[in-house]
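#structure-requests
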Amino acid sequence: MPPTVPITPPGVFIDSAGFIALYVATDQNHQAALLCKERTLSRSHLYTSSAVISETVAHIQRDGLLDQQNLQDLLDDLIKPSGWRAPFLFGDALVLDVLLLDNDVLMRALRTVKQKQDRRFSLVDATNVVLMEKHQIDLIFTFDTYYDGVTVTRGHTVRFLQRVPE
């Protein structure tokens, strides 16, 4: 019998629009987000960044999108993301990694924002792209359309980011 090859789950980066759609029942994309979580995210290795977490919590608090109990549940998931574990697929491996920003990522992101000259494309959006490029992640879970047409570079290869769900 031939040896088995371990299958690595695809990497998916979660943007604040994805988190908000998952947690805020009144969000217009909530049902699509739940379906995506069931079909795709639960079978993926998930990534986000410290900047996305800051932006998500700030947006939810500023706009009063969640009551205090649901906000506490979101914070609990982010502090100890047991809700993001998929033991039936990956054993006890944590499938949500929080990527931290370093000076190089920040400087590259600032240059990207300056070059884009698009007020809708924020510094957090730019850090997401830089982190995805750095960690070789091609899929982003967001409902923001301004990621369409954005590319990441891998050596000599340029790839378009793909939004999940499509």
